């Protein structure tokens, strides 16, 4: 069964005279126990999409969708209050910069204890207090922090980035969520710490069958940890499929360029040779091209591209391009 | 081929506060010896606290070395003598957004090194600036823009223009590609490799991304806690890493990406 199923979700920003469509009809569906990567460069609207799922977007953004199902339940028909209750129970999110996301004025111990649901504790107030303490320590142990005494009594600035990220994960796990949205969990972290965090997430996925939506700007980083990948560009859906499909036989010119431009993925390329790169840069929100937004940078762009392409499904490999590799018979 | 930059036994120790009987010191960089030739790239790999940024600071002269000498061409670079050094050794930083002065136009930003280091007159300076902007893939009209009008990738190109405008011999890239998006990163890498061919630059590439290091560098130094762990031609180190630490670094980045899936 699908964990959640979103069809044609659009997020727009009301400006003085016109609406700016930051996310343009993106579809995203996840199965239970799946690790899905959501890849896109900065300004592709991937963080907005995650915040729209969580329902924590600023009211200035307006969100519309054709379908927004959570475990078979239609969330669009519910009031914001009911929707929040469902999402808050089952979905947790961890943010990009753990040190900035934690409260700098309270100790780690208090912050973890605060996240524990009071309804899960029993007994009198002293028993509950004790249970809450031991639960917080159990959570810290679970994410691989061994010396909980030092950690609970310190403030976020006294710990390293990787430990802070672990604390964030511990807080997210307090309600044992079904879905964890990880918004660039390893940005600005060293490669060895990155590996630790990803391994922790992967083990949680295996042991507790927690689904993970892994958001990243770099295709290289996530390929090892995901089952399926969705690629976005400038607020539009580009391509979705299994990690192998995306990496071995990308259908969209943009995904093709992303894979080709990664030096780590092209081992056979001679050193110091030119990498393939798309010309130009990502359009800013005020000057979005019409139709397919990759148009001005796309090597295959033709006149037809001024209308936005419809997503086509090739055995679960969904691509949104008029002239994809399947059409032109290259794969 | 004679080597362009030769570094002999360069080291840096910081004094920690303490009384005169128990003076403590902290060694940021143990003695290191290497040389770079023109048209070559030396990559320096290591984690935070491995001394790679200290090495970069020593090379540009922002810090004074405790021991050792830096030779450029055949001349020894002395501490505090910047007349030669800041023309020949230039540096690009990681975060291009904060290294450009937001209250100056691109023309003023690029003019500064020229005014301080050359005897060119106004017209010659403007011509040189236009030419340099074209070289890094921007337009001459961009001279009148302010840094906030550019995207991240373009800002990094402006820092590159500022670095190459004095026709340097050595360019130090301190994580210069880390903050860029993948498609812009490969554009920038292509541009850097082109400029290296045209101008005969020597690069010192400080990076954590081993994929880029493997692609762009000729020689490699792996640093750990200020000590050289491994040193040699990049191809050789990557195909046959000798040290455990190098292997750990390579494994943590899944350098055989695409083979495992």
Give an account of the 3D structure.
The complex is a heterodimer of chains A (331) and B (261). With 331 residues, chain A is an alpha/beta fold. Helix content of chain A is 32%, strand content 23%. Chain A contains eleven helices and 13 strands. In chain A, the strands form two sheets. Chain A has an eight-stranded mixed beta sheet with strand order 7-8-9-3-10-11-13-12, with helices on both faces. In chain A, strands 1, 2, 4, 5 and 6 form a five-stranded antiparallel beta sheet that branches. In chain A, helix 4 packs parallel to helix 7 (161-173). The longest helix of chain A has 18 residues, at 125-142. The radius of gyration of chain A is 21 Å and the shape is globular. The mean pLDDT of chain A is 84. With 261 residues, chain B is of the alpha/beta class. Chain B has a single domain (5-48, 62-252), classed as 3-Layer(aba) Sandwich (Rossmann fold), CATH 3.40.50.300. Chain B is built from ten helices and ten strands. Chain B has helices at 52-60, 82-88, 96-99, 106-117, 122-135, 152-164, 182-199, 210-216, 234-239, 244-252, and strands at 5-16, 24-36, 41-45, 67-72, 75-77, 89-92, 170-174, 202-206, 219-224, 227-233. In chain B, strands 6-7-8-3-9-10 form a six-stranded mixed beta sheet, with helices on both faces. In chain B, helix 5 (122-135) crosses helix 6. Chain B is globular and about 55 Å long. The termini of chain B are far apart. Residues 257-261 of chain B have low confidence and may be disordered. The chains are: A alpha/beta (331), B alpha/beta (261). At the A-B interface, helix 8, helix 10 and helix 11 of A face helix 6, helix 7, helix 8 and helix 10 of B. Chain A: Belongs to the ABC transporter superfamily. Chain A: Residues 6-259 form the ABC transporter domain. Chain A: This is Peptide ABC transporter ATP-binding protein.
């Amino acid at each position: 069964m699908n964990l959640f199923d979103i069809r044609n979700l659009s997020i727009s920003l009301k400006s003085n005279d016109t609406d700016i469509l930051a996310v343009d009809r993106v579809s995203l569906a996840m199965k239970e126990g799946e690790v899905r990567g959501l890849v896109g460069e900065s300004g592709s609207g991937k963080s907005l999409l995650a915040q729209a799922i969580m329902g924590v977007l600023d009211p200035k953004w307006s969100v519309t969708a054709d379908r927004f199902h959570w475990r078979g339940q239609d969330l669009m028909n519910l009031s914001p209050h009911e929707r929040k209750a469902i999402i808050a129970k089952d979905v947790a999110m961890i943010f990009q910069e753990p040190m900035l996301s934690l409260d700098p004025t309270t100790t780690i111990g208090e912050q973890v204890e605060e996240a524990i649901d009071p309804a899960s504790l029993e007994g009198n107030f002293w028993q509950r207090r004790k249970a809450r303490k031991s639960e917080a320590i159990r959570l810290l142990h679970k994410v691989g922090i061994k010396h909980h005494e030092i950690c609970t009594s310190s403030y976020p600035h006294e710990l390293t980035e990787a430990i802070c990220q672990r604390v964030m994960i511990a807080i997210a796990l307090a309600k044992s969520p079904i879905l964890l949205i990880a918004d660039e969990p390893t940005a600005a972290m060293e490669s060895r710490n990155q590996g630790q965090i990803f391994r922790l997430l992967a083990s949680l996925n295996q042991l507790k069958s927690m689904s993970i939506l892994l958001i990243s700007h770099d295709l290289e980083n996530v390929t090892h940890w995901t089952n399926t990948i969705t690629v976005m560009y400038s607020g539009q859906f580009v391509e979705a499929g299994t990690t192998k499909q995306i990496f071995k036989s990308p259908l969209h010119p943009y995904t093709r360029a992303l894979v080709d431009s990664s030096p780590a993925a092209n081992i056979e390329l001679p050193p110091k040779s030119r990498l393939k790169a798309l010309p130009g840069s990502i359009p800013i929100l005020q000057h979005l091209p019409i139709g397919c937004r990759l148009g001005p940078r796309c090597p295959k762009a033709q006149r037809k591209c001024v209308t936005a392409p419809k997503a086509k499904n090739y055995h679960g490999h969904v691509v949104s391009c008029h002239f994809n590799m399947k059409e032109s018979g290259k794969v | 081929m004679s080597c362009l930059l030769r570094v002999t036994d360069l080291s840096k120790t910081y004094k920690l506060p303490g009384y005169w009987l128990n003076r403590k010191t902290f060694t940021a960089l143990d003695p290191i010896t290497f040389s770079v030739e023109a048209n070559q790239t030396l990559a320096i790999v290591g984690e935070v606290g491995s001394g790679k940024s200290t090495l970069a600071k020593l090379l540009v002269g922002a810090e004074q070395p405790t021991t050792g000498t830096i030779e450029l061409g055949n001349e020894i670079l002395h501490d505090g003598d910047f007349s030669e050094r800041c023309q020949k050794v230039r540096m690009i930083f990681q975060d291009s957004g904060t290294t450009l002065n937001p209250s100056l136009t691109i023309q003023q930003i690029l003019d500064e090194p020229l005014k301080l280091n050359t005897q060119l007159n106004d017209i010659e300076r403007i011509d040189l600036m236009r030419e340099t902007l074209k070289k890094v893939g921007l337009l001459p009209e961009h001279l009148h823009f302010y840094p906030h009008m550019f995207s991240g990738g373009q800002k990094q190109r402006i820092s590159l223009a500022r670095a190459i405008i004095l026709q340097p011999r050595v360019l130090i890239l301190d994580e210069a590609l880390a903050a860029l998006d993948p498609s812009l990163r490969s554009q920038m890498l292509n541009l850097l490799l082109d400029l290296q061919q045209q101008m005969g630059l020597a690069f010192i590439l400080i990076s954590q991304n081993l994929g880029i290091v493997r692609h762009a560098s000729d020689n490699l130094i792996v640093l750990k806690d200020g000590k050289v762990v491994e040193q040699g031609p990049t191809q050789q180190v990557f195909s046959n890493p000798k040290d455990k630490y190098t292997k750990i670094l390579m494994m943590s980045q899944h350098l055989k990406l695409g083979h495992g899936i």
